């Protein structure tokens, strides 16, 4: 049950990168690339380019906001609501704050909530405590009929942009524990079907080895998603 196959999912988080010309180059290689049709691909440009990217990317590639706010409107300078995101045709949001998950789902977005782990937490043996606390906070904001719109991303912060990487075995171990928590605290069906992707410095060098792990259902990719090599990461299970 815990290692049942699920569709592969690869998200490209462009972070604070890109102008229209550079984004055009990314769209060109995504359009021309031979993307594995069995893998769901979602790209997250900076907010100001969301509508432009949605209009120019092939419809087979999803688009995500990198963040969203927890209310539909109001005096919140600089924020973007899920309703605004949907209004420009975007269907996903990456969410690092559990308090935003419930409203985003209610507004009709699909969400990629991030579960983070710091190096000091791992070294002090608190990994399970830390990730389970975050997972519970997120799960408490998801209604039974909304789980199909949720893809979790496990992000060991210590392996992002530091040159350190979690081994496939380390990543698999946490994914198995997260899935078991879902089984024990939500339902066996949710645990079996929910995708849990890995977001810790995924590159062309390590993607295939990571993809061989049965409980790693894909990746959330940062800087590597800005380069043509991203196609290789998307196709890591081929």
TrEMBL record:
It holds the Pfam family TIM. One of its GO terms (molecular function) is triose-phosphate isomerase activity. It comes from the Eukaryota. The keyword Transit peptide does not apply. Pathway: Carbohydrate biosynthesis; gluconeogenesis; Carbohydrate degradation; glycolysis; D-glyceraldehyde 3-phosphate from glycerone phosphate: step 1/1. Keywords: Gluconeogenesis, Glycolysis, Isomerase. It catalyses: D-glyceraldehyde 3-phosphate = dihydroxyacetone phosphate. Belongs to the triosephosphate isomerase family. This is Triosephosphate isomerase. It comes from Artemia franciscana (Brine shrimp).
């Amino acid at each position: 049950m815990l290692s049942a196959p699920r569709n592969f999912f690869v998200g490209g988080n462009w972070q604070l990168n890109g102008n229209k010309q550079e984004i055009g180059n990314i769209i060109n290689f995504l359009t021309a690339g031979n993307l594995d049709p069995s893998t769901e691909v979602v790209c997250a440009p900076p907010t100001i380019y969301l509508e432009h990217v949605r209009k120019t990317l092939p419809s087979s590639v999803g688009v995500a906001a990198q963040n969203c706010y927890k209310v539909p409107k109001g005096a919140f300078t600089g924020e973007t609501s899920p309703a605004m995101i949907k209004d420009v045709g975007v269907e996903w949001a990456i969410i690092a704050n559990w308090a935003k998950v419930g409203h985003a789902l209610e507004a009709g977005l699909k969400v990629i909530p991030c579960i983070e782990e710091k190096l000091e937490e791992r070294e002090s043996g608190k990994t399970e405590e830390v990730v389970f606390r975050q997972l519970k906070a997120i799960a408490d904001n998801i209604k039974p009929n909304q789980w199909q719109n949720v893809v979790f991303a496990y992000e060991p912060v210590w392996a992002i942009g530091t040159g350190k990487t979690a081994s496939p075995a380390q990543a698999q171990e946490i994914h198995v524990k997260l899935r078991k928590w879902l089984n024990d605290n939500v339902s066996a069906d949710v645990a079996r079907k929910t995708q849990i992707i890995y977001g810790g410095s995924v590159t062309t060098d390590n993607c295939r080895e990571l993809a061989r792990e049965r409980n790693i259902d894909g990746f959330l990719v940062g800087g590597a998603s800005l380069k043509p090599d991203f196609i290789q990461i998307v196709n890591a299970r081929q």
